[in-house]
Amino acid sequence: MHISIITLFPEMFSGVFSASIVKRAIEKGKLDITFVNLRDFASDAYGSVDDHPYGGGTGMVLRVDVIDRALQHTRSLVKNSTQRAILMTPQGETYTQHKARQLSTVDHLIILCGHYEGVDERARALVDEEISIGDYVLTGGEIPAMVLTDSVARLLPDVLAKPDATINESFENNMLEYPHYTRPERYGKASVPAVLLSGNHKKIMKWREEKALERTQKRRPDLLLKARKDLA
Ligand code: ADE
């Protein structure tokens, strides 16, 4: 997979992408990341990428012509590929594990990081979708772009050590994951549930299913409602 990130702040990504699963995906040749600096597509010699909003108001708005040039350039970077251009914005569709799985099948993901007060409304027509990572406002789309990249990278084939490691995770099948334990067997008054020490694989599976359901019911009943709707 190739991910291109259009941003004014490429330097923000170095720490996150030079560690963790993203690093491993790159080293294994499963992921290529290219940064495209929006500033390189500025409309004047001063490198202006934004301007004051028509109608007045505070803040600056990213210009549609600058975004258009950056997107056209970025789309041409990877030939013969399925592409999806995504604008990171708090106004987008809320990001989910389901969406991460969908995006992990695309050859070339293009992530446009919004900044300042926002982007010119006309830029929305230039992307395929808009994604928000949650109902809160960040300074820009860079941290959301890191979130998206990390969540997609770990789903790429042969990136995680165990290929089935992501199958039982939280949010797969609209469920939270069952509780985990490791040594020590007893910590203060808290013991590991006996069933996990029983060696009875069937019983352990059943216990985990029950706990996952119980936990989802208690903490995220909305996920179960969603699961029911998906089945209907
Ligand atoms: N940019 C600023 N806040 C954001 C959010 N919550 N999700 C995606 N992009 C953003």
Intertermini distance: 33 Å
Catalogue the unreliable spans. Answer: none
Q: Can you tell me the overall shape?
A: elongated
Mean of pLDDT: 95
Structural class assignment: alpha/beta
Written description of the protein model:
The structure is a single chain. The chain has 232 residues and is an alpha/beta fold. It has 2 domains: 2-153, Alpha/beta knot, CATH 3.40.1280.10; 172-231, tRNA(m1g37)methyltransferase, domain 2 (Trp Operon Repressor, Chain A), CATH 1.10.1270. Helix content is 31%, strand content 19%. It has 7 helices and 10 strands. The protein has a 5-stranded parallel sheet with strand order 2-1-6-5-8. Strands 3-4-7 form a 3-stranded mixed sheet. Helix 6 packs across helix 7. The longest helix is centred in the last third of the chain and has 19 residues, at 201-219.
